[in-house]
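Section 5.1 Outputs to date
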Amino acid sequence: MIHQFKEYFQSKIELTDEQFDSISSPLKVKKFEKNEIIQYKGDILKYGFFVGKGLLRSYSIDSKGKEHIIQFAPENWFVSDRNQMHNEPSDFFIEAIEATEAVIVPDNFMSEASRKVPCLLALNVTMLHNSIRFMQKRINMLLSATAEERYLDFIKLYPNLTLRVPQWMIASYLGITPESLSRVRKELANKHFRP
């Protein structure tokens, strides 16, 4: 699993095995059972998760008990709650949708690793910008896109998840009802659309 994490970095920047070895000691691998909640609202965790195998989801629960999925994290995705950077309680739950193996990444990993391997600084900035772009696009989609546009964007972002995730979770992520999602899927099928 640590090897997969190294390959992820090496696919983004020129990083030797020796450089990676010099920064990898804080990384640990952990296995999670299907349906295991690995972070609760209110937790103050000092790490995030890089998914090597399996699938995680980040979500909140509103005052009426309704779940709102913020993010899915399949293989080679990161998920964390940025409140941890400020020692504030988490706003989100993180749950394993499937049996999952993840690299536990301390919240200060990138800043500490960048001191030893300076080329990681640029990667860290790029990853932060990508995360901000992802969230801006997600907010814009929720505010202005049709249910069909949201679903098509979901398929583009997560091409392999429609068969791995229950439909109600996809609907929650899209901010629509399961009935609306069924309607969208039926209309797309009538147009001979195939994901």
